[in-house]
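User: For my dataset I need records formatted as: sequence, then structure tokens, nothing else. Please produce one.
Assistant:
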Amino acid sequence: MVLDHVPMIKRLIKKVKKLARKSALAYKAKNKEILILEDFNFSNPKTSDYLNIIKAFGLETKKTLVVTSDINNNIYLSSRNLKNSKVVINSELNTYEITDANNILILESAVEGIESTLK
């Protein structure tokens, strides 16, 4: 009997998760905690280069989340030594990461992917 409703429950859970992501992003945007950046890449993974970008926005002491459009190993490798920084691709963005970060830096190429997953 309970198994008859499993597909409906899965659809409902997907809708709730999507709504939670939308709400979290809207809250961050309202509080001016989202920055859209031009796409950038590093020729070599260097934490100092990544830290220079974070420092340029005054975010070196805050938890930051960088959202890219696809896997970018140089950006990821440059950030992994920093405890207050995380890099994700737009398809893996979840509500916890959005709410856990103080500021979100979204690369221009990732904006379209975020919009399409939230529609």
